[in-house]
Structures are given as structure tokens and as C-alpha cells.
Write a structure and sequence with these properties.
Length: about 200
């Protein structure tokens, strides 16, 4: 979509463990975000209930519902960089959808006004392997309860706030050893056993 770099520091910090950019959302002003490109597109009737829109600037297309020139209802957007299949409202992803990128990232879950919000699962493919997050999102950020798995199979399962590990969680190593601990603003604070030893 225009070859622009996307940014989403709130959700995934833009980088994996090795520092590689793994940002997830399109830049505003691209065909997927809902812009003036719809007005510049060519309309081709595909079926009585569907409209096909062509985005010459991004070499992309959309097939699905359109109301008053805006994507609405179910539709599929495809470009060389990404594909989104799901629900739309007022030209933005809204409801349930599946989103995949050419770099191997994918998201399946709920959207509100073009942003990840509700339940969802994000998968990143990195040089070290696959990372996943499955849980709650709010306004493009991990927020609520969720499970994050690193390529080495270590797992954090617990609280998230504004895209950062926050609150009580269970940490499981790749060998299966589990500990309950506390995080604040994405930083480890202490293990629950240490809290109990101080109280005892």
C-alpha cells in the first residue's frame, strides 16, 4: 500500500526480540485505512450485491459492499503488501476480520473503526521463529488478558495494559517450568513466591 512503513508501537513495540521491525497497522492515507482513494478508484460491477473497486495508485482491489462510496458490510481488500477479508463500516475494518501481510504477519479477530479492538490473535514470523499473541486488544494495543508466546516457546499469560505486560501473570519456560509474577509497564517486578515469603 504505497510502500510506506507502518507503525504500531502501542501494540507490539515495532520490534521483535532481535530488533526487527514487526509493526502491524497500515499508515493513514493508504487504501486500507479508508481515504480519498475510493473516490479516485474505478468502479466495476462484479455482482448485484457486490462492487469491485480498483486502486491504481497501490495496485490494489476491493470486492464487497459499498454504501455512499465507502466500503460497508463484508468485503475483501487485496494489494501486493496485504490482504484483509472481513467486515467494514464507513470505509474502515469494523467487526470480525482476517488480515495478512506479505512479510508473514497475520491477525484474525475483532476491529473497531479500523483498529484491533476486542478478541484477536496476531502471529509474527521472525528469523528466530514464530511469535504469537492471543487475547484482548483495545485501540490497536494488547489490553486486558492475553497470552504471548516467543519463538523459544517461553510464554507470558496474564495482564496487559496499553500494549505492555502489566499486572499478575504466569510465565512458563520452554521446559514447562511455571512461575506466577507481577509486571508493571512491561517490566518484571517480582515473583509471587517472593511476595509470600515477605508476608510470612
Amino acid at each position: 500500500m504505497g510502500g510506506q512503513t507502518s507503525k504500531c508501537a502501542a501494540c507490539c513495540g515495532d520490534k521483535d526480540e532481535s530488533g526487527k521491525d514487526i509493526s502491524i497497522q497500515p499508515v493513514e492515507g493508504t487504501g486500507l485505512a479508508g481515504t480519498e482513494e475510493v473516490a479516485e478508484s474505478k468502479k466495476v460491477e462484479a455482482a448485484p450485491d457486490k462492487v469491485e473497486l480498483k486502486y491504481e495508485k497501490d495496485e490494489a482491489s476491493y470486492v464487497g459492499g459499498v454504501v455512499d462510496g465507502k466500503r460497508e458490510g463484508y468485503g475483501v481488500y487485496k494489494s501486493n503488501i496485504e490482504t484483509y477479508e472481513g467486515e467494514w463500516k464507513s470505509d474502515k475494518q469494523h467487526g470480525n476480520g482476517k488480515h495478512s501481510w506479505s512479510d508473514g504477519r497475520s491477525y484474525e479477530g475483532q476491529y473497531v473503526n479500523g483498529r484491533f479492538s476486542g478478541k484477536g490473535k496476531m502471529v509474527w514470523t521472525t528469523d528466530k521463529g514464530i511469535m504469537t499473541y492471543e487475547g484482548d486488544y483495545l485501540d490497536d494495543a494488547k489490553h486486558g488478558f492475553g497470552k504471548f508466546t516467543w519463538p523459544n516457546m517461553n510464554v507470558y499469560e496474564g495482564g496487559w495494559q496499553a500494549g505492555k505486560r502489566h499486572g499478575k501473570a504466569t510465565f512458563t519456560t520452554h521446559a514447562g517450568k511455571q512461575k506466577v509474577g507481577f509486571w508493571q509497564e512491561d517490566k518484571f517486578v517480582r515473583w509471587e513466591a517472593e511476595e509470600n515469603a515477605v508476608a510470612g
